[in-house]
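Example 3.2
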Amino acid sequence: MTKKKYIHINISAIFLLFCSFTSIAADTLPAHNPVPGGIAIINLEITQDKTPQAFFDKRKILVKNHNNKWHAIIGIPLTKKAGAAQVTVIDNSGKKTNHVFKILNKQYETRHITIKNKRMVSPTKKDIERHYKEKPLMLEALKNWSQTDDVETGFSLPVKGRLSSPFGLKRIYNNQKRIRRHTGLDIAAPVGTPIQSPAKGTVIRTGNYFFTGNTVFIDHGQGLISMYCHLNKTLVKAGDVLLKNDLIGEVGMTGRVSGPHLHWVISLNNTKVDPALFLNQ
């Protein structure tokens, strides 16, 4: 057995373990993995009852009380370089402090993907015009902020299936020279497989978009947004309040796909991060 095959088997085994534990009751913090596309968890060392404010790269970030300690939960952009970084914290008295942390380097794999629908790789003029009309609506949903102290950050897996494409891949479609980053986690499953909300939240947008097909956006609070793409059916609407494991839709293959799957996106402080870091382990 080659080393490459051995690694693949272990990743699959870990993913199957995730599928076996989709309803863990205790809420947890995400995994601390301060790399581009990852998450940094910073203990703010503040004991005040009221939620402090925290900022990273001039963006407000999620602050959560866990085990009676305030923590900043920071999404790190894929484009961020390794090195020193800092979080600015404002406590209830207005006092500012800076917390320095280190962003580590990470290299992501490159894969070649074949898409049979060539319009999804080389869109027509009308397709491009449609995409540019849809894009602001999607970006607006991903940067939504609702202030709440009760943010659930221990997620369950939204669909039972196999990991078909991890977060962060550098992907080349149909041998074109352009490299696109994979900013979600793909879970392959048959068309019609139920998709459930991984945590409580509120549906803030649904729609059908050129590249992502039938899509649902859920706001979990404080800039934590989840996105579900390529659905066969959407079973919720904007304004619906969801609990963990509530049904939101079915797996499909709408939009740009090479087969039926869920493309699952997590946006944290308007930054797409690896959804696997939120899974209860």
